[in-house]
Amino acid sequence: PTTTLPATALASFAQIQPLLAKSCIECHGPAKQKASLRVDSPDAILKGGKSGPAMIPGDSEHSLLIRRCLGLDNEPRMPYKRPSLPDDQIQSLRQWIDWLPVAKAKTENP
Predict the structure, then answer these.
(1) Which candidate in 6, 42, 43, 73 could, as Cys together with 104 as Cys, close a disulfide (CB 3.0–4.6 Å)?
(2) Checking DSSP bridges between strand 106-108 and strand 2-4, what pairing results, if any?
(3) CA-to-CA distance for 85 and 6, rounded, in angstroms?
(4) How far, in Å, are 6, 30, 91, 93, 96 from residue 102 at the CA level?
(5) Interval 42-75: pLDDT, tens
(6) DSSP assignment of 3-47, as one string?
(7) How far apart are CA 50 and CA 58, in angstroms?
């Protein structure tokens, strides 16, 4: 099964895409996918990687994307071996994840 987000999630992704492109895509994009994770689209973030979905729509507190940016759960802080994301950028990611409509994320069988 694959999970997709509504079109509004794609439109809102444009607001955080530059942040992800600057800080994350080098290791988690089309060319390289460390831990099998890509963050170049909302559906890729939702799908996640080896550790599971990188976000839980509507729940940034439990979303791995945020938890890794904060260095929680005894895991390395991301971006790895680079400066931490500023608080305002982490807050932007949190707001985007929290804004995503939980009920409208749907699972489809291919």
Answers:
(1) 6
(2) antiparallel
(3) 27
(4) 10, 27, 19, 16, 12
(5) 989 999 999 999 999 999 999 999 999 999 999 9
(6) EE--HHHHHHHHHHHHHHHHHTTTTBSSS-BGGG---SSHHHHHH
(7) 21
